[in-house]
Specification:
The chain has 184 residues and is of the alpha/beta class. A 7-stranded mixed beta sheet has the order 5-6-3-8-10-12-13, with no helix packed on it. Strands 1-4-7-2-9-11 form a 6-stranded mixed beta sheet. It is globular.
Amino acid sequence: MKKSLALLALAALFIGTTSCRKKDEPKPPVVSTDPNTTDASADVAAIKNSQAVLTVPAGSVVYIEPQTGLKILGATMDATDKTKYTVGTNGLLGINGNVEKLKIQSDDITDLTLSKSSPLLKTLILVTKTQSATANATKIDLSGLTELESLLIAGYEIASLDLTKQTKLKNLGIGAWDLERQLP
């Protein structure tokens, strides 16, 4: 009888400790240090399914930083300037990857959609290459960037900008290039 009670107590202790053990938490995405890659022949559906989707006139140049951790769809990377991408004939460029800071420079963006989750992205910089964009108006959707802390937009004409989902936003700069140096 004592043996049975001892075994029962041991089994109860084992079951109790395993049920109270901390559940496996999802691991945060890892920032890649691999150089950016491109897929210039990606189809429209794959590009539109990217974390970031830009619409520009075909053949436009877009500068994207950082130079690591991203996969760029629908564009070719310049052989000497690894931040310079030329957009293909459909005028769409997709960006996938996990980075903490993303900088996009182009005078021609007419639509920028970041509706998919990018949990590591804390800083987004969207600026024109010259002091004013050639695109008449730019539509921006940042609904997927719920962890965004810093945002700088300069050189674009934007009719409206919805920041209701950016509840962690601490730094906001609209129209001032000099603020880029002050962002984390």
